[in-house]
Records
---
Amino acid sequence: MDENSARMAEQLRKNPAMLKSLMQSRDGQTLMRLLTQDDGGAGLQKAVQSAAKGDAAAMTRMVSQIMQSPEGAALVERINKAVQK
């Protein structure tokens, strides 16, 4: 996980209200749709479980795939900026 993503994840972990707000936002909903569209969320669930055990590789791969498109990269950038506020 790159430094910005790690910082964002840590901020969200420490601030459940911020995480809830993000997940209720349009960008958060779009991110969830992109993360779950291929397999109904099974891959995301496994990635979250692995990340909780300290292995963020699967989560990093999922976010990297999203960032392959200009729209996905813009989405992740907007979320990073929102979390930094």
---
Amino acid sequence: MDIVLGTTKRKMIDIPEEVLRRLSVKAARRGMDLKKYIEGLLARDAADMTTDMDDEEAYRWLSSNDPEGLVPADEKEQERFRKWLEL
């Protein structure tokens, strides 16, 4: 999954040497430089806003921020669905 990033901001962080070494190995296995690998990890984590939410909280967040699927089907679409189900 590719994450498209807009403007960026520079932030200096401290990473334990052992963690840095392991991340470097993982990045190398994927043929990536460490910086791009870490940026990708952070972007994917930030993109999945529902990871640490229970089902109710995730549904509430998705309903207000990503409402796809919450629009009721019109009568024509409902009829096609009934025919597809052979009702």
---
Amino acid sequence: MAAITIYDHIRQNNIKTFLLACLFPIVLTILVGIACLCAVLLVNDKDFLLQGIYLLLSWFPALEEGITPENAQFYSALGYLLYSVVPILLVSSVWVIVSLAFGDKMMLGFAQAVPLQKKDNPQVYRAVENVAIAAGLPLPKIYLIEDDSLNAFATGYSPKTASIALTKGIVNKLEPQELEGVIAHEMAHVGNRDIRLNMLIITGLGVFAFIADFLRLNMYQRSSKDEKNAFQLLIFFIIIALFIFNFIFAPLIHMAISRTREYAADATGALIIRNPKALASALEKIQTDARVEVLDRQPTMATACIADPTERKSEVAALSDLSSTHPPIKERIKRLNAMG
């Protein structure tokens, strides 16, 4: 059997990421569909049932011939699904555009990162220049986070607008080759376009909680009492579906995407500097103190960092590996060392 190359590893992770990203709209649609069906089944009201069918036929009039008393509830739920999920996806799309436009600034603001000029630290600036040239990528903007811990992240819409943020600790405590390994890991995220995905995840997932809260505040704005009760129940189930998606399914998909991206960035970073052991050595030091205190209030930022920057309680350490956005550092080090 032929050996798996770094390029194979990167390609496999990109395929996994694409498939996982497709799960977001699929899972959301399924959950909202179940919510609509539950409402139709529980509301014993003919007008409410017919209203859902009417909504469906206004989109797909050809379906009228297939509707029977036995499947009327299903088609009614499908009508309510269309009129629920389409606005949700439209609002989400606008939110995504805003996230792409301002997400990098938000992430740098979360970390309280400040621009680093060449005159401030020529060695770090030169290290980023060298790695960018080796990666065949434009020189990113460089930022410094005033924290003695060891961590770093990259952000931006594309390689041309990318930024790399390094903590004060990672700059001062790593050897030059180790620091290049960290920079190469972040440049790998830039080159693999992970920065765009991370930016959407970090700044974009909140839209579903926002929509759920908006629906909650407006669920009493109907006129007729019977209609009010029926539609309140429908909205209530949709709100439940959105919260389940936002706080259960989205984090699970998010976690799976982030884990595959970290392995790919490690492999690509090792390829860029031709020295996987340097990055492995850097990760050994990073795992001793990766916490960035200012990011304790921004747990979603963990996905962008080279290691989880948030505080982990020792009593739940065993569970943290299962719920973490990053694969275990020991496993990452093992894979890097195996690359030789």
---
Amino acid sequence: MANIYELRRYGKIAFLIASVAVVALFLYFSDGLIRDLSAVERERMQLWADATKEIAASTMSDDDSAPATDIDFLLGIIQSNTTIPVLLTDQDGNILQQRNFSLPVEADSSSFGMPSNPRNVSFLEKKLEALKRSPNVIEINIADGISQYLYYEDSTLLKRLSIYPYIQLLVMLAFIAVVYFAVLSTKKAEQNKVWVGLSKETAHQLGTPISSLMAWMELLPDLGVDADTLTEMNKDVNRLSTIASRFSKIGSAPAMMSADLNEIVGEAVGYMHTRISQRISLTYAPARDILPVEACTPLLEWVIENLIKNAVDAMDGSGSIDVSMGGGAAMAFIEVADTGKGISRKNHKAVFNPGFTTKSRGWGLGLTLAKRIIEQYHQGKIFVKQSVPGQGTTFRIELPIKRG
């Protein structure tokens, strides 16, 4: 099962790389389209500049032989520009003409000349200062020693096209995110149904033999079984009943009761103390103060027992397990530290995934159910606080304190 999550991790990395490549390719072609449109607009502005040059040259010339239709044609070229904002200045930087700018105050002069309103004049001067810092300028040589400069902004179409790829990218990312989380939610819901169904079916299957064992326990004294043996057998039967009860609570809201966390953990540690190898040292350090919490005692004991069992399995027959507790004004914590094999950092979160296990036997559901019990039922957190391969692991549980 561990390999499944390893492959899934690599799959996520591969998907991320592929997504970045697709986005980069998309932006590359979009950028090429924008460059092409920008070149077309510059060609239009060059044509506009050439027409302006010809009109200026014709105006300065004393030769009246030029046909009037030429001027009309050139003026038609200039007037055909209805989308690209243009400023025409002399060589001293004085604005001679403007076209296609959205002025703060409605145009108070022709669309070619300078407006008279001070706000409009100030607006155009600021535009000119900004355009001087851009590459969108064409020098027009009117005559020897006389030049004019044509400044222009990108058209509205080009501006929209420049931001369109990023808008489309955001839409794509949002769509992918929605689909991803929808699939993830559906998958989690299916997993929950499987685990809940498995737990309840296990509780149901255990119910019949437990009932039979309880009935046999009532007959054993009449058969001459000694009292000590009956006491131990009764403990085991009650334990089976408790385990069945724990499984039946998975998937439904358990009854939460006020309790001292020290007592709950102490009971679980005490039970495990007599059921692990004597070569493994199990110590318990409760908090000095009472830790009042809202808890389902059977389920919380199950979590502690599961962590201790995992710690035992992580050791080669000997070592130590330390269970310690503490708390503050808002949060109580439980730490289970062992001297076992440890967990690699990349698997600190994966150990809580359904089916993840490094053991040759087992379903890998213990920590998954523990996470569900702590986070969904008790509104707390469970995580790997620290782990060093070959040295040991510390699990930490945090639960909210109940005051008042």
